[in-house]
Write a structure and sequence with these properties.
The protein is of the alpha/beta class. It has 11 helices and 12 strands. The chain has an 8-stranded parallel barrel with strand order 3-4-5-8-9-10-11-12, surrounded by 7 helices. Helix 1 links the parallel strand 3 and strand 4. Helix 1 packs parallel to helix 2 and helix 6 packs across helix 7. 48% of the residues are buried.
Length: 385
């Protein structure tokens, strides 16, 4: 049979993914003062062993002020490199490409974890650097009602902040990651600069569309200058946010960052206001149209995200030319072996080969010896269709 596109290798610059299944960056909020923990090793390892072509570590902060919660991972100091190297090495050892997303929360920093309510943190003796963990943003504009007011970044601070991104990129390379993603979505700092509702500056970083794009472009240029030329650079957009940033602006920004060295735009939405945009109410593949438009109109390679759940759904996205890669998020939390499961459902010969042999040997042996056996992911139960 013809190999499904989902399981066709994909190459960009000097990096090849064995398939087009990417594990999306998902905040775990499990770090210890910015350092990775055993949870991160377990979490990334199970996805790599499940057969994904690439595993992307969660948004890791480029400076202390950028941490969203007490549990954010960090790359603002060389001390974080050894721990991150363990994660990258583990992903690679299990047959996947190690990737990492770097970001800064801006005015969305200093909050409780989502399952703790997500509200602004309260000052306490347990947080020894409360004043240093400062909320900064393009402008002194609050996000949601009841949020604390951030301090507007001065013009002189911005180049130093851009340098933090470049320094984090250098550390990600030293840790052994092969792909880097700049987080410019979901209402975090770069998105705040892009947004006319969050960015009220009257200098060369605010006002016009091009001025509001300036910070994003400077970050890309600084990162690309230190990120090796043989390694791909991704960038996550909120393509539309219902707060003054829309698809047409994203298409123009995608063309600009593509010319500056971004290889793939990871197409998400929302974040400046509470929920997703009205045009992207959650449903199967609800954000895929964004990936389609940027891919064809910027044009630039794109990654589709957003309730991509089923193997045939992911394959159809690629076959339609809507995206170059598909990112699986919460569904792979539910089923870490999603890539192997998808390969079997799409009829890929040697579907277990993407797994480490300690898993693949036993699963292939069972599949060959019990011809009429269906895995638990195929049906509700033994006596139910």
């Amino acid at each position: 049979m013809t190999l499904p596109l989902l399981f066709t290798p994909w190459t960009k610059r000097g990096v090849t993914l064995k398939n087009r299944v990417v594990v999306a960056p998902m905040h775990q909020y499990a770090a210890d003062h910015g350092f990775i923990t055993d949870w991160h090793l377990m979490n990334a390892g199970r996805f790599a062993a499940g057969g994904a072509g690439m595993v992307m570590v969660e948004s890791t902060k480029v400076e202390r002020r950028g941490c969203g919660t007490l549990g954010d991972t960090g790359l603002w100091d060389d001390a974080f490199i050894p721990g991150m190297k363990r994660v990258a090495d583990l992903i690679r050892a299990n047959g996947s490409v190690p990737a990492i997303q770097i970001g800064h929360s801006g005015r969305k920093a200093r909050r409780f974890r989502p399952w703790e309510g997500g509200a602004p943190l309260l000052q306490s003796p347990a947080i020894t650097d409360w004043e240093a963990w400062e909320l900064v943003a393009p402008s002194a504009e609050i996000g949601d009602a009841g949020d604390p007011m951030p301090r507007a970044l001065t013009r002189d601070e911005i180049p130093k902040l851009v340098q933090h991104w470049a320094d984090a990129a250098r550390r990600a390379d030293a840790a052994g990651f092969d792909v880097l993603e700049i987080h410019a979505a979901h209402g975090y700092l770069i998105h705040q600069f892009l947004s006319p509702s969050a960015n009220r500056r009257n200098d060369d970083y605010g006002g016009s569309e091009r001025n509001r794009m300036r910070f994003a472009l400077e970050v890309v240029e600084a990162v690309r200058a230190v990120w090796p030329t043989h390694k791909p650079l991704f960038m996550r957009f909120s393509v539309e946010d219902d707060a003054g940033w829309d698809v047409e602006q994203s298409i123009r920004l995608a063309a600009l960052v593509g010319a500056a060295g971004v290889d793939v735009v990871d197409c998400s939405s929302g974040g400046i206001t509470g929920g997703p945009p009205k045009a992207a109410r959650p449903g199967y593949g609800y954000q895929v149209p964004y990936a389609r438009r940027l891919r064809h109109e910027a044009p630039i390679a794109t990654m589709a995200v957003g309730l991509i759940v089923h193997a045939d759904q992911a394959e159809a996205i690629l076959q339609a030319g809507d995206a170059d890669l598909v990112a699986i998020g919460r569904e792979i939390l539910y089923n870490p072996n999603w890539p192997t499961d998808a390969a079997r459902k799409l009829g890929v010969d040697g579907a277990f080969d993407a797994m480490p042999q300690a898993q693949s040997y036993w699963l292939e042996k069972r599949a060959k010896s019990v011809k009429d056996m269906e895995p638990s992911t195929y049906r509700r139960g033994l006596h139910q269709a």
